[in-house]
Design goal:
This protein starts with a helix and ends in a 5-residue tail after the last helix. The longest helix is centred in the middle third of the chain and has 55 residues, at about 140-195. Helix 3 runs parallel beside helix 6. The chain has 9 helices and no strands. About 85% of the residues lie in helices and about 0% in strands.
C-alpha cells in the first residue's frame, strides 16, 4: 500500500513537470514569434476587435456598478468619521491598484477567453488546423499569435476603461449620497427650529445630533426662556437662515 501511494505521487509529480515544461516551451515559442506576428498588423487588429471591442459592454457595465457600490459603501463608512473628502482617493486607489485589473481579468477570461478557446477547439475538431499544416503554414504563427497579441493589447486598455467608468460611478454615488444626507439634515434642523416653544429643549438636542450650525442653539434658548412673539419669529428666521446657508455651502463641495 505505501509503495502504491508513492508510485501514484511520483507519477503525479512527473505529469506536472511535463505539463510545466510544455507550457514553458509554448510560452518561449510565443515570445520568439512575436516580432514576426506584429508584421501581420491586420490580423492583430482584427483580434483586438474580437477580444477587446466586443468585451466593452460587459466591462463598462460591470465597472459602473462596481464603482457605484464602492462609492456608496465608502461614503456610508467615511461619513461616520467626517472623512467624506477621502472617498475619491480611496476609490481611485482601490480601482486602479486592485479591483480594476482583477475584475477585468475575470470578465475578459469569461467572455473573450472562452470564445478563443472554443474557436480554436472547433478548428481542431473540424481539421482546419490540419489543413493549415498541409498547406505548409505554421498554425502557431497564423492562428495563435494574432489572438495572443490581441488579448495582450486589449487587456490593459480594458482595465483602464473599467477603472475610468468605475470612478465615474463612484462619483455619481457619492454626489447622490451627499445630497440625500444634506437634505435629511436640513429637514431635521428646520423641523426642530419651527417646533413649538414648549418643545425647544428637545429641538436643541435634535439640532446637536444633526450638527446644526454654531449659534442656532443660542437662538432657541432665547425663544424657550421667553420673549415677545415678534422677537421669537425674528430669532427663528435668523436661525433658519443660518442653517440654509450652511447646508448650501456644504452642498457645493466637490468630489475629491
Amino acid at each position: 500500500m505505501p509503495l502504491g501511494i508513492l508510485r501514484e505521487l511520483g507519477a503525479s509529480v512527473q505529469d506536472s513537470l511535463l505539463a510545466l515544461g510544455r507550457y514553458s516551451i509554448f510560452a518561449a515559442r510565443l515570445a520568439a514569434e512575436t516580432p514576426r506576428a506584429l508584421l501581420r498588423f491586420r490580423l492583430v487588429v482584427d483580434q483586438v476587435h474580437n477580444a477587446g471591442v466586443l468585451s466593452l459592454v460587459i466591462i463598462m457595465l460591470s465597472g459602473l456598478f462596481v464603482g457605484m457600490v464602492l462609492g456608496l459603501q465608502g461614503f456610508d463608512l467615511l461619513e461616520r468619521f467626517g472623512s467624506e473628502e477621502s472617498l475619491g482617493s480611496a476609490a481611485a486607489l482601490g480601482l486602479l491598484k486592485e479591483l480594476g485589473p482583477v475584475v477585468t481579468a475575470l470578465l475578459f477570461a469569461g467572455r473573450a477567453g472562452t470564445a478563443l478557446a472554443s474557436e480554436l477547439g472547433l478548428m481542431r475538431a473540424t481539421d482546419q488546423i490540419s489543413a493549415i499544416e498541409m498547406m505548409a503554414v505554421d498554425p502557431v504563427r497564423r492562428v495563435v499569435m494574432p489572438r495572443f497579441l490581441g488579448g495582450t493589447i486589449s487587456m490593459p486598455l480594458l482595465a483602464g476603461i473599467f477603472s475610468m467608468i468605475g470612478l465615474y460611478g463612484a462619483q455619481s454615488a457619492f454626489e447622490k449620497a451627499k445630497r440625500d444626507l444634506l437634505d435629511l439634515r436640513a429637514e431635521r434642523t428646520l423641523a426642530a427650529i419651527t417646533a413649538p416653544a414648549a418643545g425647544t429643549i428637545t429641538a436643541v438636542n435634535v439640532l446637536a445630533a444633526a450638527d446644526a450650525p454654531a449659534g442656532t442653539e443660542r437662538y432657541l434658548y432665547q425663544v424657550h426662556f421667553g420673549v415677545d412673539e415678534e422677537t421669537k419669529q425674528r430669532l427663528m428666521a435668523r436661525a433658519a437662515g443660518d442653517v440654509r446657508s450652511t447646508w448650501a455651502t456644504e452642498g457645493e463641495g466637490g468630489y475629491d
